[in-house]
Beta-phosphoglucomutase (Nocardioides gansuensis), 242 residues
Amino acid sequence: MSRFGLPDGIQACLFDLDGVLTRTASVHRAAWRDVFDPLLVSAGQPPFTDEDYARFVDGKPRRDGVRDFLAARGITPAEGSPGDSPDADTVSGIASRKNVLLLKRLEEHGVQVFPGSVAYLRVVHGSGIPTAVVTSSANGAEVIRAAGIEHLIDQRVDGVVADREGLSGKPAPDTFLEAARRLGVEPAEAAVFEDARAGVAAGRAGGFGLVVGVDRGGQADALRESGADVVVDDLSQLLDSS
């Protein structure tokens, strides 16, 4: 490993947003719980758990998260269409409902960052290594702006970009591959930083030069099993290793 805990040859860094740079994973989890629990109660199912979030929802596009989690509980709502009302109990309506609740929580509580990880981002970007945020969130631009890190991000591939370009969400590698393309590097020349199992799996599937798992909730083994080369509690640890 060379500077910043990166192998020689790494020329770009691709960061997930929620849970890696910003403290919004807990806000996402709470919004999902508010959406899912009434549906689960009506189906006679136990409540949504943190493990459910990690296994079925974290890091995925909203509609995929709705579909995958409810299918695991034997619930199969109609797909609906992207324009469905947040009141509709379709996959699209439930996904929209979650976003309404998320935006309300973000408005009430704001966006906090992980200081150590933002310090790492600042050092990497300041050294001339290009950076990108790769997030399944359709609110990526707003969260980045609210977090005050716009000037440290060279490219952004979020849920809006993925929908527009027809990119499959994590665990498919498409969004990371698009970010690498926009930065002008090959996957083997880029490092991926992820806290979600689906995101780590995407980094591994894309053939990236380094996949760093960020363990925010006691899932270090699961991140390694998903394909992480290195697991840290915070990106500041990589500065300590330089």
In short: DSSP finds eleven helices and six strands in the chain.
